[in-house]
């Protein structure tokens, strides 16, 4: 048994509006999926979608998960920043300092993301969404490697990173201490290869915890938390 990463999903007060923003920034098309929200086809070798799921949660702190977008030149970096600002992004201060070579922005619902300078060797070949950068422990990196069947491509305590065998976006963890729960964040949506319940049991055996379903969400999905307490969902087979 195993799961594939079906979507990296945003909690969204206005899913259509947020999907429009990210579609414009990344140049992505809408998918036609049965999903409790909106999905975009990422076109990434890692094979996931971007999901925008309705949520009433309020953002109270910096996200634990954010995208690192790559650039091929300084002009390309500047164009991405300008496009995002035109679509409703704002500059964000997460302590990066005035000398930082990357640009930190927040989307129209406050989700932080970085537009990296060119020449990042670690994310070379990973695509426009070079990384989903996460605040998390080494243990949670090991958990997700086993959960998704993605090998570790970096394991230098306390930092870990995994990547699909097909390539594409890397998922990275920077180690403790964990930031506070932001209340409204990005989450992973998994699609089991076969039986949903059997896959849930496998994930529980790896260290996941079962959570109560959120009212108004897809009742067919099972809500779990990884060993660091980050919520994720196991969908019915997609």
UniProtKB/TrEMBL annotation:
It comes from the Bacteria. Pfam families: Glyoxalase_6 (PF18029). Signal peptide: none annotated. Coiled coil: none annotated. Residues 4-118, 125-237 form the VOC domain. This is VOC family protein.
């Amino acid at each position: 048994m195993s799961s594939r990463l079906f979507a990296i999903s945003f909690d969204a007060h206005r899913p259509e509006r947020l999907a429009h923003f990210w579609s414009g920034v990344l140049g992505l098309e809408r998918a036609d999926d049965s999903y409790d929200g909106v999905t975009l086809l990422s076109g990434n070798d890692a094979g996931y979608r971007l999901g925008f799921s309705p949520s009433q949660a309020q953002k109270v702190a910096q996200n634990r998960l954010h995208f690192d977008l790559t650039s091929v030149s300084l002009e390309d970096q500047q164009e991405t920043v300008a496009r995002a600002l035109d679509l409703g992004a704002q500059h964000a201060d997460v302590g990066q300092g005035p000398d930082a070579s990357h640009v930190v922005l927040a989307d129209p619902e406050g989700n932080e993301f970085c537009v990296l300078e060119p020449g990042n060797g670690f994310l070379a070949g990973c695509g426009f969404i070079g990384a989903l950068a996460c605040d998390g422990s080494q243990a949670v990196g090991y958990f997700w490697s086993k959960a998704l069947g993605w090998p570790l491509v970096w394991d230098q305590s306390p930092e870990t990173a995994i990547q699909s065998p097909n390539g594409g976006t890397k998922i990275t963890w920077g180690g403790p201490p964990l930031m506070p729960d932001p209340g409204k964040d990005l989450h992973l949506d998994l699609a089991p290869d076969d039986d949903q319940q059997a896959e849930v049991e496998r994930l529980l055996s790896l260290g996941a915890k079962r959570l109560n379903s959120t009212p108004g969400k897809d009742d067919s999905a099972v809500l779990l938390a990884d060993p660091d307490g980050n919520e994720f969902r196991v969908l019915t087979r997609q």
